Amino acid sequence: MKKVNLMKMSAVSLAILFSQGVMANEPWSQDRQWLFGDWNGKRQQLEDQGYKFTASIMSQAATNIDGGYNDNNTTTVASQLTLGANFDLNKIAGWNDTTAAIMITKRDGNALTNERIKDPRSTTLGNSQEIYGRGKIWRLTQAWVKKGFDDNKVQVKVGRMGMSDDFNSSQCEFQNLLLCGGQLGKSIGSIWYNWPVSVWAANVKYQFAPEWTIGVGVYEVNPDDIKTQSASDGFNLGMNNVQGATIPVELAWKPKLNGLPGEYKIGALYSTAEAKDIKTAGKVHDGKHSFWFNSQQQLTQRGDDSKRGLYVGFNAVFNDKATTFVQSTQQLAFWYKGPFDSRPADEIGLGFARYDVNNRARDKEIATDISRGYFSYDPIASNYVPIQRSELNVELNYTYQWSPAVMIRPNLQYIHQPAGVKEVDDAWVAGLSVRVNF
């Protein structure tokens, strides 16, 4: 079967719908919830009965304007198709406070960061297209059941899920990878699997006070879950290659400061899987650990609309220095919802994010180059290892929310020291994200 690029699929779909836009049901109206409509009322009827179906396509284009390892201008497009269903089992089967979900995803396309921005010999840190990665294959991204107890103060979730679905989760108002979503998967991806990967897992959340919740989970560490060689890898359900478990604990506080909502989380994890020492060859540790802090706070409110106003988010991750290449990450982001009265659902975003490479890993890179006779940066030698330090990502964007069904987000990104290599020119990238909910 021929491979079909998801961007081409979405373009054809949009063209067909545009040609029908003059017909009844107004597919392009700004209050349109789904591009394919309400199925003559059947969709809302099914949702009222407990069945909610979702389908969306996201595409992220990126063009290098200036700088980077290779400054020959090009445009790459990454894309993602998501198909899902949520089930309210109270409505369907009379099971109180019980829900379930299933979701599959398909990623495609290429990454500008890999092709133009970073030195190809260096370990990838950031990415100007956050939906790129984990293979161009179909994946089972969610398949879980969640049950509430004690008026939903206690919630137990079991099945296949990504780790940042419930721990170290964060806002995603940007196209740049480190500015979007949970941070741990970007720095310890060998044991912390984010979307679109799922693993066998279970977690418990306990709301012990109106503003306070504590959670703990157990997630398998199984390299088979992140394989990308064959189409079946995305649906691996076996546990023959499980190497241990990642155990996160997180405390969340959801206050209202000056009447405006916020969320503050501190967390830690321990992985029981053996971990190689980042500097000393042959040395193995019994496990590894990380700590994190996530926060999001609404700072202002515009008029009577509680959703409009200025928001800020700050996230930080601190990883085990003995076993991790990226020692820490920091993210500071601002976004303003509803900047114009005529566009109450639009947003303006500005974010800053940084990767810090472990100095023990850097010492190993330097020692390797000296052993090969290199004492300064060599731009072309295949066996030279670029010395990596820190990388800074900045993004400015505008989110044009045409309707709940169509989102368009042009953005401008600046990457300082791509992949942490100071000899590579700082890069400017123009991006465009488009999401369509069908």
TrEMBL record:
Signal peptide boundaries: 1-24
GO terms under biological process: carbohydrate transport
Molecular functions per Gene Ontology: porin activity
Transmembrane regions: none
Pfam families to which the protein is assigned, alphabetical: OprB (PF04966)
InterPro entries attached to this UniProt entry: Carb-sel_porin_OprB (IPR007049), OprB_Porin (IPR052932), OprB_sf (IPR038673)
Record key words, sorted: Signal
Keyword match Oxidoreductase: no
Gene3D superfamilies listed in its UniProt record: Carbohydrate-selective porin OprB
GO cellular component: membrane
PANTHER family: PORIN B
Record-stated family: Belongs to the OprB family.
Protein name (Swiss-Prot/TrEMBL): Uncharacterized protein
